[in-house]
User: What shape does this take?
Amino acid sequence: MTDMNRRRLLLIGIPLLALLVGVAFWASGGERIETENAYLKSDLVPIYPEVDAQVNEVLVEENAVVQAGQAVVRLDVASLKIDLERAEARLATVGEDLLALERQYRQRGDELALADEQLRFAERELARQRELVGAKLSPATRLELAEHEVLQARGRVDILRQGIEEMRIRLGSVLQGRVSDHPLLRAASAERDAASLHLARAEIVAPLSGRVVKLPERGAMARRGAPLFTLVRADDIWVEANFKETQLDLLRPGQPVVIRLDSYPDAEWRGHVHTISPASGAEFAVLPPQNASGNWVKVVQRVPVRIAIDEGPSDLPLRAGTSASVSVDVQSGNRLSRLLGSR
Assistant: This one.
C-alpha cells in the first residue's frame, strides 16, 4: 500500500467508520425524559373517633410503626358506660311496656265479649218492652229506659273495639309471636348496640400498618368529625412526578423508570410508569386558573404521573414528601424502528 492510499484510508475510512459506529449506537440506544419535579407519596389516613370523649391513654410514641389492629389510643369510658346502661334500661322498659300492652289487649278482648253479651241482653229486653208497651202491659218509661240501655251498651262495645284496634296496631308483630320484630323494640335494641359499639371503640386501633403521626396528648378531647391522629401507610409508597405537558407525547404506562432521591444521592431505585393523570395539576388546585380572563399568559402546565417503585435498596427507609428526580426510558432500543417506521 502506497503512502497515498494509506493517507486516503486515514482521511476517509476512519471518519466514515466512526460515523457508522455513532449511527449504530444512536439507533440502538433509547430516549429518556427527565424531571426533578417529583416527590415520594403515600396514603395519609386520618383516623376519626366515633365518640366524644377525653383521651385517657396514648399507647404508642410519635412516629412509631404500628400494625393493623394494634391499639393506639384509649378514650375515657365512664360516660360511655353510662350511655350503655341507659340504653339497656330503655330496652328493658320497652320490652316490659309491650308485655303490659299485650296483657291489656287480652283483657280488653274479655271486656268486649262481656260488653257484647250485655248488648245482646239489652236488645232482647228492648224487644220485650216494645211488646209489653204495645199490649198496654208496661208503661212507656220502661221502653225509653230499655232503649237508653241499648244505646249505652252499643257505645261501650264501639269504644272497646276502637281501643282494641289501636292496641292491635301498636302491638303489631307481638301478636304474631315475633316480639323482637317490633319497631320500638328494634329501635331500643339498636340504641343499645350503638352504645355497646361506642364503648368497644373507645380503644382506637390502626386500620392498617404504617406510622402514626400527630398523636393527641393525654387529656385532650376527641371529637367526632375531627381527626384524632394520622396514619402514614408504610407498605405502599410511590413517586408522583409532574411532567410538562410537552413531555407527554412519548410517555406510556409500563415504561421503565430510574428514580433517585435527594435524601440518598448515591442510591437508585427502579420502577415503572403506573398511571398518567387525566388532568393537569392546576385543575385540582383550590383556586384554578381563570384562563378566560383578559390578562392571559400561556404557561406550560404539568401533569402528575404516578410511578410505582419496583426495587431498590431495602436498608434505606422511604419517607413520604421527600424530593426525587426521575428518568423515564420512553424509546428504549426503538430509535431505529421508529426511523424505519416513519418511512
Q: What stands out?
A: Residues 78-134 form the longest helix (57 residues).
